[in-house]
Amino acid sequence: MEGIWQLISVEKIAELLNEVSRRFRLPLAIKSCEGGPLPDMYSGPETAVSSHSGLHDSFAGTREQPITYHGEVIGTISAATTEENLEAAAFCIENALRLEAENIDLSAEIVRIYEEQALIYSLSRKLGSEMEVDGICQHILDEADKLLVVNNIVILLHDPASDELYASLSKGRDREASARFRTDAMQGLLGEVFRYGEPMTICNVGDEDRRLFPYPVRSILCVPLVTDDRGIGMLVASDKLSGEEFWSRELKLMGVFALEAAAAIKKAQLYEEISSLFIQTVEALASSVDAKDPYTFGHSNRVARLTSAICEGLGMSRKEVRQVELAAILHDIGKIGTPESILQKPERLDPEEMSKIREHSAKGAQILSNIDELHDVIAWIRHHHEWYDGNGYPDGLSSDAIPLQARIIAVADAFDAMTSDRPYRKGMSDDVAVANMEECSGSQFDPQILMVFKSIVRSGILSHHLIPSCNQNEY
């Protein structure tokens, strides 16, 4: 077993030999089982380690004692002493080597555990507040790529409807091809790994299994994503850039990594399901309000779409956009308490009726006030009829005192009102509506938001619009 000599440094072997030599007060020489000194080493009570092989000649004719490690002879020590002393010295050398090897193994294990903990901590910190599957997958790919350094790495998620694994997100040389990755979750190599839920490395992927991949592969590492004893997907890495094979240590490390990743993805999937159900409920509620007036049916959804376009134009994150969309869908919820005789009146409203309909923004905020999760959204709904110059309602806020999201909804709401048909007039064209709104820039509307919206409309990004005049207050 020559491995011990490679495992322990020459300096450490010399240190051990010197220690035993001092303890027994006699010069010692050590060599490997291949014969010859290891490596040309001599030690004595008063002598430093030497690399002069000639010194070993002085040990000619002395006794030799085998050195064993885990029952195998790995070398010998020599000394001009009694057999009993030499056996005792060999015993000390063997114990010292064993303890040093154990220390090295323990150090390596500590390093491995530290790396695992650091990895889990880093991933947990990044995923802690992330609630979108794509965002979580991106974090997972970035961290996994640092560990593996491969040509391609892809996260496959399970589609229960088709019982297939499909590419959610990928990174690497063949990213475009990876986007087309889709395979049967019950067939082939990947299906087997997914079903049994055990990580696997394959050094040389067979021809049949290679055809499963939309890009060239030679060696792969597959790590199932399992949570609550159910598979939700798989991480597949292929071909290290170094050309090396995947190691068992990497497989174990990625197994630990996958537990955290799977839990985060599942959490995000559940959140998206709940959010989708919530949005559907909100849309149904908003539709019940729209249904009170056939001329404004679909208004809330159109305002939400327009609002989304403005938010994206302002560079908001997807999470922020969704929140504003939710406020836009609910912006007229207060009209649920407005008499239909006012909402459906074919003529212009008189001052008393106008006062009544202006109550809807404050009423909407009040209706939603008991829902803690909508705390921010409630403020945006309350203030979506405030004017930039302070002449709006219900609180007469102005400029930056009006929440940004409320200023965005105000632009989208007005545009849909202007371009929609009403009993007493036809809807305006997009260009006429935008021209009218420009006249109100800095008075009713935030100039910056209006400028972004104008560029969106004129770029043709919006497929169709339905919305009335900034000088009219019926919306």
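The record above closes out task 2.4. Task 2.5 opens with a second protein, given below.
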Amino acid sequence: MKINKNIYLMPFVAVLLIGGLWTALERLGWSLPAWPGGALSHGPLMIVGFLGALIALERAVALEKMWTYIAPIAMAAGGILSLLFSLNTPGYSLIVLGSAVNFATMIYLTKKQNILFNQIMMLGAGIFFLGNILWVTGYAVPYVIFFWSGYLLLTIFGERLELTRMVPVSKLNMKIVTYLLVIYTVLIILSLQWLAVSARLIGLVLILIAVWFSMNDIARRTIKMDGQPKYTSLGLLLGYFWSIISGIILLVWGFVPAGYIYDAFAHALFLGFVFSMIFVHAPIIFPAVFGTPMKFSNLFYSHLLLLQITLAGRIIGDFLANEELRLWFGLLNVIAILLFIGNTVLSVVRAMKERNQ
């Protein structure tokens, strides 16, 4: 059997994810042996290393151009160096290089197919590149989090926009969401100069975007189906719910660089929205990227629902300033992601057994 070359990147992606989860527990207060990069490497590991490399790999696979693989390889290597040594290593240069090539990849793709959803994802790649430059030149993580989250949101929203072609959406409705996404991007850039005002406006626009997708995404139709379509639709709608929650937190409290409110905003967005999207897209993306079959199982609901319940508990702990709730529900957040990995591996094994019968 021919081995997909992308499978060789999987161990590095796995190391980044495990390192990100480990440092998450450190940040929560669990007593664990510390990685050299320290607990402060948690955000960069999960966003820039793990998620950045994974999205860039997906783009490279789609284009089948060797130079585009520089992006995921450089970001993964940069993240691992930051984990194994410190945040002041050559990993910085590799991360900037990777995000630059990722931006170039999206420019190339948009020139080939100059359509709306590619343009939106190109904007996301551009602010991700800018955010990484700011980060390596001294900006603290809370001050570049809008750039990092903007990359993930614009990428996901761009991909979901592509699927709106399967449902009737009026030209006016498409113009509305296009303007909202562009305004969202501009506000992220303006946050460099007018952070306090921009943060609240980002929250407002994020709510409007998430409401638009909740109303117009094909998930509203496919949730009535059975099997994988229902699972995917449920995860999408739950993801939009959490992005609305993160927007409300920003709108009400504004920019808070640390503490309970910051934790609630960041994890509603990155755990609630982003990981819900990862959970439901994995059965589609995983086989395409790594060439490994997956078989959908109702077990997938276990990690999806566990994430929602435990995240709700964690955010309640944030609002109550209750460290015990944050500590235990944060641990359960990690267990939900580990359960997702376990269910994914089991799904692959089952699919390979069926294929070989």
